[in-house]
Design brief:
Layout lengths: L2 H12 L3 H5 L6 H15 L1 E4 L2 E3 L3 E6 L1 H8 L3 H17 L9 E6 L8 E6 L5 E9 L2 E4 L3 E6 L6 E2 L10 E5 L4 E5 L6 E3 L2 E3 L1 E4 L4 E4 L2 E11 L22
Parallel strand pairs: 3-4, 8-9
Antiparallel strand pairs: 1-2, 3-5, 6-7, 6-16, 8-10, 10-11, 11-14, 12-13, 12-15, 15-16
Helix pairs in contact: 1-3, 1-5, 3-5
Keywords: Phosphoprotein
Protein name: DUF2662 domain-containing protein
Pfam family, one: FhaA_N
Length: about 240
């Protein structure tokens, strides 16, 4: 199964079914992915025998109506698009000069269903940021301990009667993460299995009551990147600079 075939499944999982309800007409996310793929293939530049450089900064332009529908999904859509851009580049042995960013833009000159992609190469450092995605909201994890629970004293508060006031915590030391149950009443699951304490890998799923919590490590543009902050987007999953 190809990358485009996997897209709808991955996105629907990320937004808990909002995909099917939102995208019934107009521009489809798979069409954006196809446009990004074409842009990468078209702009690929052979630098040396073992190095083919492709753009890493993309602006996806679409009609205002399409833009409004796409942005309802929040960061989940951009995360999925960036992940698929990475996978396509890896499958073709392409390399990036810096962290990948994708910005969605409204363009009144385009009609519904149309998409235009602009791209460029931006060299810069990559800053790694761990986050927890909960019901479409994103919570950055600070170094140390982040407590998840139903109580107001928790760092990430769940509106879930199946969660204890201080249910579990995520520990982050700057490079690695762990999840630990805090003696909760109903227990904690990691990727579908009961857990007391375990290492957290990127895209691991913590389940507390009815709540699904996804642990991600995002690559963001570092301080040496000269783009305006409003044009920087998160990158879902791990990324390493080209050698």
């Amino acid at each position: 199964m190809g990358l485009l075939d996997n897209f709808e499944k991955g996105l629907e999982r990320a937004v808990n079914g909002a995909f099917a309800k939102t995208f019934r007409s107009g521009l489809q996310p798979v069409e954006i992915t196809a446009a990004l793929k074409r842009e990468i293939d078209t702009k690929a530049a052979v630098v040396s025998r073992d190095r083919v450089l492709v753009p890493n900064s993309f602006t996806v332009r679409m009609a205002p109506e399409d833009h409004e529908r796409m942005t309802r999904l929040g960061p989940a859509l951009v995360d999925e698009l960036v992940d698929l851009v990475q996978k396509h580049a890896a499958s073709q042995h392409f390399q990036f000069a810096g962290g990948v960013s994708i910005a969605l833009a409204s363009d009144e000159g385009l009609t519904v269903g149309m998409v235009q992609v602009d791209s460029t190469n931006v060299k810069g450092r990559v800053a790694w940021t761990p986050v927890l995605d909960v019901d479409g909201k994103r919570y950055p994890i600070l170094k140390g301990r982040t407590v998840i629970g139903r109580g107001s004293e928790a760092d990430v508060t769940l509106d879930d009667t199946g969660a204890s006031r201080r249910h579990a915590e995520v520990q982050w030391d700057g490079s690695r993460a762990r999840v630990r149950d805090l003696g909760s009443t109903n227990g904690t699951q990691l990727n579908g299995a009961p857990v007391k304490e375990a290492v957290l890998e990127p895209d691991s799923v913590i389940t507390i009551g009815r709540s699904r919590i996804v642990f991600r490590v995002l690559a963001q543009a570092g301080a040496s990147d000269t783009r305006p902050a409003t044009q920087r987007s998160d990158l879902g999953g791990f990324w390493g600079p080209a050698s």
